[in-house]
C-alpha cells in the first residue's frame, strides 16, 4: 500500500511518496490499474511473487478505509517520513504512527504489525507549517529516493523484511 492523497493536485507532493513508489513498481512490473474498494489496485509479479499495489482513493487520514479484507502481516506500507532526512529510505516492521495520520488510519484498521518502507522527506524549515510542507512539491533528494524505495519493497518481497532492513537501514 502506498500512502498519498488522490488527484493531480497532490501527485508530486512530499505526502504522496507512497503513491510515487507504487507508480515506480507498476512501471517496472506492469499490470493494469483497476478500481477496488476505496482504492486503485494493480496485481503485479515481482520475481514470481504475486503482489497487489494498492493506492487508497481516500485522503491520507482515511487510508485505512481501503484495507477491508487485508491483514497487517500481509502488508507493506510505503509512506513519507518527516523524521528521516530527505532522500533516505528505511525499512521497519511495526511501530506507532509517529504523528502520521495515514499510518494512524492504517493502524486503526489492521494493527501495527505491517512492514513499512519509509521515504525521508526531511523536516520543514524552522517555523514553517508542517501541513504546507508535506503538501508542497517534493524536492530533488526525496524524488531520487523513489526508485530506492521501490527497490526496498522488492527486497522485502524477495528476501523478507529482515534482509531488507539489513540492506536499506545500514548507515553509509
Task: Give the SSE layout.
Layout: H1 17-29, E1 34-36, E2 39-46, E3 49-56, E4 76-81, E5 89-93, H2 101-110, E6 115-120, H3 130-134, H4 140-159, H5 161-168
Helix pairs in contact: 1-4, 4-5
Task: Describe the structure using short key phrases.
172 residues; Rossmann fold; alpha+beta; 5 helices
Describe this protein's structure.
The chain has 172 residues and is an alpha+beta fold. It has one domain: 3-Layer(aba) Sandwich (Rossmann fold), CATH 3.40.50. Helices cover 33% and strands 21% of the residues. It has helices at residues 17-29, 101-110, 130-134, 140-159, 161-168, and strands at 34-36, 39-46, 49-56, 76-81, 89-93, 115-120. The protein has a three-stranded antiparallel β-sheet with strand order 1-2-3. A three-stranded mixed β-sheet has the order 4-6-5. Helix 1 (17-29) packs across helix 4 (140-159) and helix 4 (140-159) runs antiparallel to helix 5 (161-168).
Which parts are unreliable, with pLDDT below 50 for 5 consecutive residues or more? none
Could you report the average pLDDT, rounded to the nearest whole number?
93
Name the beta content range: 15-25%
The CATH homologous superfamily is termed: Peptidyl-tRNA hydrolase
Structural class: alpha+beta
Helix content: 25-40%
CATH topology: Rossmann fold
Task: Give the overall shape, derived from the CA principal axes.
Answer: globular
The number of helical segments is: 5
- SSE arrangement, N to C: HEEEEEHEHHH
- Rg over CA atoms, rounded to whole Å, is 15 Å
Number of strands: 6
Architecture (CATH level 2) name: 3-Layer(aba) Sandwich
Number of domains: 1
Major sheet size, sense and barrel closure: 3 strands, antiparallel
Widest sheet: strand order? Answer: 1-2-3
Q: In angstroms, what separates the terminal alpha carbons?
A: 27 Å
The CATH class is Alpha Beta
InterPro entries: Pept_tRNA_hydro, Pept_tRNA_hydro_CS, Pept_tRNA_hydro_sf
EC number: 3.1.1.29
Site (Stabilizes the basic form of H active site to accept a proton): 80
Subcellular location: Cytoplasm
